[in-house]
Amino acid sequence: MSTTASRPASRQDKAAAGVANFADDSVGASKIVNGFARKVFPDHWSFMLGEISLWTFVILLLTGTFLTFFYVPSMGEIPYEGVYAPLHGQIVSEAYASSLAISFDVRGGLIIRQIHHWAALIFVASTVVHMFRVFFTGAFRKPREINWVIGALLAILAVFEGFTGYSLPDDLLSGTGIRIAQAIMLAVPVVGTYLSFFFFGGEFPGHVLIPRFYVIHILLLPAIMLALIAAHMFLLVLHKHTQFPGPGRTNDNVVGFPLFPVYMAKMGGFFFIVFGVIALISAFVGINPIWAYGPYDPSPVTAGSQPDWYMGWLDGAVRLTPGWWEFTLWGFTFSMNIFIPTTVIILVVMAVLVAYPWIEQIATGDYREHHLLDRPRNQPTRTGLGVMALTFYVILLISGGNDIIAHMLNLSINDLTRGLRLLLFVLPPIAFWVTKRICLGLQRRDREKALHGRETGRIVRLPHGEFIEVHAPLDEYERWMLVQHESQRPLELQPAAGANPDTLFGKVQHALSRFYFDDRVEPVTPAELEAAHHHHGHGGEHAAIDPSEKGSAKTTNSLTTQG
Amino acid sequence: MTRTLSALSARRRHPLAVVLLIALALTLTGGLYAALVPQPASAQPEQSASATDIAEGEKLFIANCATCHGFNGEGGDPQPTGWGYGITGPSLVGVGAAAVDFQVGTGRMPLPYQGPQAVPAERIRFSQEQINQMAAYVASLGPGPAIPAEEFLDITALTEEEISRGSNIFRTNCAMCHNFAGAGGALTKGKEAPALFNVTERHIYEAMTTGPQSMPVFNDNTIAPEDKKAIIGFLKSIHSQPDPGGLPLGYLGPVSEGLFAWVAGIGLLIGCAVWLGMKSS
User: Fold this and answer.
1) What is the domain range of residue A51?
2) Which of A385-389, A407-411, A530-534 is the least confident region?
3) Which of A262, A346, B95, B217 qualifies as a cystine partner to B211, CB 3.0-4.6 A?
4) pLDDT, tens digit, for every residue of A436-468?
5) In A, which residues are within 8 Å of B116 by CB distance?
6) Predicted-complex ipTM score
7) Which of A257, A286, A414 lies closest to B188 in CB terms?
8) Of A309, A326, A346, which residue is a domain's last?
9) Which residue of B has its CA nearest to A399?
10) How many domains does chain A have?
11) Distance of CA A380 to CAs A430, A478, B19, B159, Å?
12) Domains of chain B
């Protein structure tokens, strides 16, 4: 018996070994597995922002698949006969009826729908947060420009994916949203009407829209996004992850933990945390109460009709644009009041977003590879530009909810809109200037700290009566963080790197470079550091730490750190 | 010739006949008037108290309302304001008892302060009896919508079909300003369509018949009394039950949802990421 028991086991071993051998022989599996498992990833909480985005996408695929089992993508009209009493007998579309059925008749349907919708909002939000992390730390620089572009495409596709999903339940709100989408199409000069007729298969709303949006939402866009995410991840592995500067971290290495087992556990665990948090929110907080909105009908509309937040900035742009931008020429109406704040603004923002890595390359004249991240303060102009863009975006987003804000705060919507129009042009430049100044100030403080050490708060009276505050020197590791970055200067100071200043490109590059680096705080050089230490040795006026005092100062230092 | 004619006429009509005829006509007219006209007046339950109510109401009116609305409810001169909201008390001739019951009963009148529109005060300044007396006085100035009878406000017997009809009518006529769930919304220049949570059935009904502030009048030809009742039934049914989805975030739509997703969703997840990041170092 024991032999028969051992024989199948050995057979299994053989089978396993056979499979492994086959995989190894055919695709070099052992190399891949080995190489991948030992792939090292650096550790920082902000590197997990993109992971939130990835995991919410996985949650969306899982819950979305569940929803497709019960959703009916049809605009055919039927009387509603489900369990929700206040809609009994009303004529609704099959899409709406099936969405209500998912909410009330399918076991667990409502929570899955709510998880799907909350995950969608958080997916786009985490994508934006991830993008800003990448932007502010300079992770888009060579060789990662293409991955930045892929990310930007993913972000815009996520917005369209979200919008098509928002439209599918065919409730009053989603129908209103589609109507606005049609208005955006119609506002495109010359081809607008054709676009609308092509898209809706005739007059609005027609009968083909929901089936078309369904295919776009569950097949077309997810497939493209999956492919782009795969490329995004592949490039991430290929380029290796960037890391923050630190002791022992250089442009040529990656300091961190191996993928297996540390990151496998961390990433897997984080997936469940993300799923858990979203499930928790979905269990307690309702989202998109389609039963309360009622079925779509082109005649009614509800106060407070807003898109989901990621479209809110475009809605806000439309709300801020004055109506007189619309004009008639040769018998045609040009709705610039709709066209510019929607189609044009999306294209401009996308263009700037995609082009930014190259814009900065022109300004810096730096075509080297960068694997070490910037501390945002060390790039004052870039950080300022980022905060400026963020301010612009947030003002548009707030404008998208101007009626809700006016209602909640008892403000006049007219005054609020005028105020926001003003702020849209005034606040972003102020935000740029303030951010840049703060960054430069922080750099100066870093310089001060690197050269003269940390203030200990210990006041010492010298024999001749002078009072000084004792400064404790930083240890090597701390100091490294403050002095490691490179000096960045306008290109004119480095004629070798600049282009010919007489061509147009040269002039632009010149101007751009000066805009970026005219205001700067030079990083501490080794010579300065040496000089500062030497200076301290003599017990200078400002930060006297002589070697004999070093021991006591260090004690103070460690005490303050503990405190 | 003339004598013959006058003799003839003298013979045909007795001199007293004219008097008799006038007396008869007067009796008939008066009788008809008595038979036809007081019908609505006698339908008022407190017909006997009405005269005193009107008198009491007039006193209250003169003491509390006449400054803006004029001593006979004819409307007042423009009141000076610092903010350009030149509010003149409008004429109350023909606004009816329902308007008084709504405006005073919800605390919108007497106007607590000058603003884009009257808003409900924290405290109602009058008892229901006093409100009824003022309503009787204003109703006596000219015919207008009456305070609705109890039968139009009793929504307990509404069927599911009627509530469903109410939701449909509400969505078509009311949701554009008051929002899909009656959470209210903004109008121009600081005016608003107020939220309809915790508003009594009678006040909702009166708002529809009188069209207070920016609201249009929905008289019985536009929305029949039964349909008004159905609308009230729909509002009360969704406001009395918990929302199936959980916390409705004020029924404000995607704005409050987006804010929640950012603050709670992204906030919690970044908190978790920071926590996980701390574990390693």
Assistant:
1) 44-248+256-309
2) A530-534
3) B217
4) 999 999 999 999 888 888 888 889 999 999 998
5) 412
6) 0.85
7) A414
8) A309
9) B255
10) 2
11) 14, 21, 109, 67
12) 46-76+88-141 (1.10.760.10), 150-244 (1.10.760.10)
